[in-house]
Specification:
alpha/beta, 5-stranded mixed sheet, 7 strands, disordered C terminus
Amino acid sequence: MRITFSKELAGARLKAARETTASQWPNVSYVTDIHPVLDWLTDKVLVEVGRHQAPVLSATVDGPTYLVQGIYSNALGKPTVVEWMAVSQLPDAPVVETLTAEVLERYGVGPNMPGRATPRDLPGLRALVPDAIDAAQRHLVALEVEYRKQIDATLAPYRQRVAEWRQEALFASSRPKEAELDQTARRRLQLIKSLETVGEPMLRLLAVLEPHTVAEGGSTR
């Protein structure tokens, strides 16, 4: 499987595929936030970390920064909302920032980042985990309203299609079986509804970034 994070490259490969007669499937897939490959990769990394644990990394941050993944799912258990967040300035004035490639670059997170055998303040970092998760959850709940609107807008044409299909089926027969049509329409609408976001979000701590250096007096920076 060939994948890319570039919308431009993915668009070009999709256009090229549509212009061929052999196949209309692009030979390079675009990786979105909810692409199954990301779930697989995340699980692949997390399986190397013990239960209820997260790696502590030395990074270019002003204070402890918590990297959190938040997921909403639909009734089928499939992700509908996936948000990657960086939570900092805990515990008094938490700031939640969307975790992008640019943010990670700013933090210095990458294959060449320095290692650290032992965290400087593991008890202090552990104590702030509940605050980080709470802040990330509040941020995710606020975003869910907008995401729900986007999902409703995406599903609206399918609901309309079911209504149009039922109407056309009624007129297609001189003796339509309305009960059967209604039952089929309800099943299809239930299937569409199952794609909506339901329940509470799941949040998991991916990693904690600790500042490189320690200032005078023992505070990290």
